[in-house]
Amino acid sequence: MDVRQAAGEGEGPLAMIIGGGSIPIAVAETVERRGRRVVLFPVSGWADPAVVEKFKHYWLPLAKAGLFYRYARAEGCRDVVFVGKALRPPLRSLRIDWLTLRLLPRIVRAYRGGDDHLISNVARIFEDYGFRIVAPHEVAPDILMPAGPIGTLRPSQRDEADITRALAVLEATGPFDMGQAAIVADNHVLAVEAIEGTDAMLRRIAELRAQGRIAAPAGAGVLVKAPKPQQDRRFDLPAIGPRTVEEVARAGLAGIAVVAGGAVVAEPAAVATAADKAKVFVAGIKAPDR
Amino acid sequence: MDVRQAAGEGEGPLAMIIGGGSIPIAVAETVERRGRRVVLFPVSGWADPAVVEKFKHYWLPLAKAGLFYRYARAEGCRDVVFVGKALRPPLRSLRIDWLTLRLLPRIVRAYRGGDDHLISNVARIFEDYGFRIVAPHEVAPDILMPAGPIGTLRPSQRDEADITRALAVLEATGPFDMGQAAIVADNHVLAVEAIEGTDAMLRRIAELRAQGRIAAPAGAGVLVKAPKPQQDRRFDLPAIGPRTVEEVARAGLAGIAVVAGGAVVAEPAAVATAADKAKVFVAGIKAPDR
Prior knowledge:
Helix content of chain A: 25-40%
Number of helices of chain A: 10
Distance between the termini of chain A: 48 Å
Oligomer: homodimer
Largest interface: A-B, 39 and 39 residues
């Protein structure tokens, strides 16, 4: 069998390799509502078993590229979406199959760098095997952050200044393929995300505040999320959800600003409710000019 | 009394406003060994009471500028050193005296920004009142990080690549007046310091490693510390000590690289012993060309 043979022509069902969080299911529901069948490939240890049950799915242990290839072909899938929270596993923890083994030198090279580097190299491997990688928002545009506020509050002038500074920080760190989020309060950079993730970063700020280590008063400060400047937007767009709103409130910040069209919102209605309840703003902002 | 009158001429004893850690005492001992008297002003809540006992000292509650002014003048001090770990206190927690009250508008403006901004504005106030701010390494040059290794290990070629990348990250974040440290492993930026401090950042990496969230194997990765590009070197140079070495080992990193002459080493002999015991390198490196 020539594994490099094209994996099928035409639209066909959409293969979704999914990680954690609620966004994968929001995407799957939208795609099916729009009349296209989905086949989920939840990654073992990342995806939530409870939520994949209502869709056709095949559990996918990491490093089982051969398994994905076999089932996706059998289902007639050519288009593949990657969506959901992923954890970068230690290479040594992977139990690999034959196809992955053949690809291992490429995967090892992909590992030596940031997330974008890893993701785009893995994507290229899929493309070499005849699949087409599509962005979650190509198949479900309504998951993208809209412009303007979600909920009733809006950023103050002071918040706008903090947003501008946070965007500048993210612009500076973008080329290093690190986090997509920063926290600024009263013009002071409190945190820049690297591998810990946004929730962990917010919990850190809540702790430092409890220890009296943050000079800005509660109710000042903004979490800003923006895609990296050179990011391949088919993968790993920044995301927020109701839990982000709750963590922002616990960290004593004024709100969340997200580049409109450059981030994904899980459960927008729940985000609006959570924002109004916690008295924080959630704003879709313009990307800085480049 | 004209509080703006010069606080004394000539060398006289050295006033040291000191925070936490062991570096202030190392500086005080060096200065006295070189024949100049010191008067310590340990800041309440920051400095360690046990270590200030052997020197003439006046405890200084924060926001008691008047108290410092009175005692420093009475002691004939004109030169002032700031040294040791400081915590940025919430403004509302300060119980201020009359002089501080008069200065409050300037202090409030100084608070709206990063540490450098705060520190240089506070320094300017001291200078307006006739004091001269001197750098800890002006009065105790032997506290500066030397070039080359401390201990027996040296960075590998892989470590050198990680050091270069970390220096580039710090160069990019420097203008934002945030942290002075970053951690890179296998070309992947694991953490950038903001307000949490180096020890907390290292503990975060140790935790993420325990959770299997770090792809690089144990023994890869470097903590790099460098002064900010526009930093006023009289204040807040990055510092390392034996505890930094222990935290680096716990985080599973290969070593520490510090810009030679641009950072302070507490207890160099103890750092060498700790480095050899933990099998990590500690290297004084050249600052990147600008």
